[in-house]
Write a structure and sequence with these properties.
alpha/beta, 8 strands, binds SN-glycerol-3-phosphate
Length: about 230
């Protein structure tokens, strides 16, 4: 499973990129608003993220257009900002139509706000490069987000779509992940990618037994070196 970070915060991206295992970045309007982003700076900010992570690391930038024509126009504009931009579109009829046009032009789309198997399959058929089923928001309404993700993963991998074969085919981004346990379950079911908030990534890299074990090693090493 590949690790993406789900944030628009440059310092968070820079820190996690320094770990050497960051494979992508996803943003959305809420994450951009969270860092105090302004409309006039949006495209410059996306370019900064793209330059920070490098051309081989996909960066999802979301279109806020509401018509097919608007999504196509904004998608083309965003894709022209940097070679690693992926246009994020929310699943709806207008976005499916826009995805088809953009995919035929070689522009990668990450179809987001996926909450069902039919939504995911429609996105793949329309030519989405990435499909983002949400987990945590399903849990928020008393449903089982991991169970739903499992259904999406199984259904999507039942078929070939004929899109993006030179890049390994359509990939599933497990999104709205809130815990390390969500990440574990997404990996066990074989989801291609997990996009994870900064705070959850920090939790993924640690474990209480790792902390305890390190403290014991340090204490014992002081006995060896006589530094006590
Ligand atoms: O990638 C989607 C993600 O940003 C949504 O997360 O926690 O707002 O449901 P959340």
């Amino acid at each position: 499973m590949k690790f993406f970070i789900d944030t628009a915060d440059l310092s968070e991206i820079e820190e996690i990129a320094s770990w050497g295992c960051l494979a992508g970045v996803t943003t959305n309007p809420s994450l951009y608003a969270k860092i105090g982003g302004k409309l006039a700076d949006f495209e410059d900010h996306m370019v900064k993220i793209c330059k920070l992570v490098g051309d081989d690391v996909p960066v999802s930038a979301e279109s806020t257009a509401t018509t097919t024509e608007g999504m196509i126009e904004e998608g083309r504009r965003l894709a022209a900002l940097a070679p690693n931009i992926v246009v994020k579109l929310p699943i709806c009829p207008e976005a499916l139509a826009a995805t088809r046009v953009l995919a035929e032009e070689g522009i990668r789309v990450n179809m987001t706000l996926i909450f069902s198997v039919p939504q995911a399959l429609l996105a793949a058929r329309a030519g989405a490069r990435y499909i983002s089923p949400f987990v945590g928001r399903f849990d928020d309404i008393g449903e089982d987000g991991i169970d739903q993700l499992d259904s999406v993963v199984s259904a999507v991998y039942n078929y070939d779509y004929g899109w993006w074969e030179d890049e390994g085919g359509v990939e599933i981004i497990s999104a709205s992940l809130r815990t390390a346990q969500h990440v574990t379950q997404a990996a066990l079911m074989g989801a291609d990618i997990a996009t994870i908030p900064y705070a959850t990534l920090k939790k993924c890299v640690t474990h209480p037994l790792t902390v305890n074990g390190l403290a014991a090693f340090e204490a014992d090493w002081k006995k060896v070196t006589g530094a006590e």
